Amino acid sequence: MKKGKLINSFQYAFFGLWMCVRDERNMRIHIGAAVVVCGMGLCYDISRQEWSVLLLTIGAVMSLEAVNTAVEKVVDLTTTEHHPLAKYAKDVAAGAVLLFAFIAVVIGILIFSPYVQQSF
Ligand SMILES: Nc1ncnc2c1ncn2[C@@H]1O[C@H](COP(=O)(O)OP(=O)(O)OP(=O)(O)O)[C@@H](O)[C@H]1O
């Protein structure tokens, strides 16, 4: 692959993430939650393994939100009409984010509950 093209690909990808943050309220909520849990991670001095799980979880939630946004945009591009398949695609993509967001909350509780209990 040519060097220029590789740089362009990174630029497009970063611009995609920026548009997601700029336009999607849910993405900004995920970022807020990530800042809070990373702050807690620093406060409680969690282990390397716990940081790995935490960062993987944060990355997965945000990546899923980005894919959900992409699905929404493609559906909107495909039809402006009310269509059951459009609803199906959007709701399934949203469900994927919701499912992993629940898992992320459970992971957060598993990681931080021993530290929070110790501090009382
Ligand atoms: N073209 C369509 N045909 C049928 N149902 C649709 C269509 N567009 C959206 N919907 C449905 O309307 C509801 C709201 O969709 P919308 O696109 O506004 O996304 P949203 O859930 O509000 O997400 P976001 O806040 O990320 O935009 C969802 O249940 C979605 O499946």
From TrEMBL:
Membrane-spanning residues: 92-116
Record keyword Calcium present: no
Enzyme class label: transferase
Cellular localisation: Cell membrane
EC number: 2.7.1.-
Keywords: ATP-binding, Cell membrane, Kinase, Lipid biosynthesis, Lipid metabolism, Membrane, Nucleotide-binding, Phospholipid biosynthesis, Phospholipid metabolism, Transferase, Transmembrane, Transmembrane helix
GO molecular function, one term: kinase activity
Topology versus the membrane: Multi-pass membrane protein
InterPro entries listed in its UniProt record: DAGK, DAGK_sf, UDPK
UniProt-listed Pfam families: DAGK_prokar
Family: Belongs to the bacterial diacylglycerol kinase family.
The protein's name: Diacylglycerol kinase family protein
Source organism per UniProt: Ectobacillus antri
